[in-house]
Each structure stands twice: as C-alpha cells, then as structure tokens.
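Researcher: Sequence recovery benchmark, item below. Answer with residues only.
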C-alpha cells in the first residue's frame, strides 16, 4: 500500500488546535435526580429504624423471641444507613447550593 503525503486527496490533514469556542467549556446545568434522592431518603429512614430497633432489642428494651435478631437488624440497618445518609447529605448540600456540591455528584438511576 502506497502512502500519500499529508494534504493530498484522501490523506490526513493537520488539525488546528487554537480554534476553541467558549460554548464547549460551559457545563450544562445538571438536572435533579429525584428518584435517586427518594431512594436515598428511604435508605436513610429504614436504616435508622433498623438500627434503633436492633439497639433497643440488644438492650432488652424490646422483648424478642429470638435473642440473635438484634445483630441482623444492626448489620442490615448499617448497610442501609451509611449510603442513605451520605447521599441525603449530598442532596441537601446541593439543594442549599453550597460551593463544591452539585446534583451531578449524585448517581442518576433514572436512565
């Protein structure tokens, strides 16, 4: 295969790198991920409830037929509470428009 010199018909052309326009550096306003925020709030609330009920069962403030039920409630509650509280925190700070926080930080599950 014979190579063609640059600039001839069918060859490659050198691109100019100084042709920037301002619009390519403007970030679009991120849309609010409402479904993700609702799931984060649900995880936060249910995780808080499970942690509270598990702790009260462990301290024997709530009677339980199964004495080991508190451990499962605390583990599942922790697994729900940690991501729920983090994403609720991000959503609140993005809503209050604190510097460095944006709705783009929250993963969007609507897609």
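Model:
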């Amino acid at each position: 295969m014979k190579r063609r010199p640059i600039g001839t018909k069918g060859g490659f052309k050198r691109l100019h790198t100084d042709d920037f326009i301002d619009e390519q550096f403007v970030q679009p306003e991120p849309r609010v991920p409402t479904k993700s925020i609702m799931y984060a709030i649900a995880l936060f609330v249910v995780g808080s409830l499970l942690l509270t009920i598990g702790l009260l069962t462990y301290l024997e403030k709530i009677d339980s037929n199964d004495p080991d039920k508190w451990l499962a409630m605390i583990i599942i509650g922790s697994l729900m509470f940690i991501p729920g509280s983090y994403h609720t925190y991000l959503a609140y700070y993005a809503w209050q428009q604190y510097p460095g926080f944006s709705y783009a930080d929250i993963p969007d599950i609507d897609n």
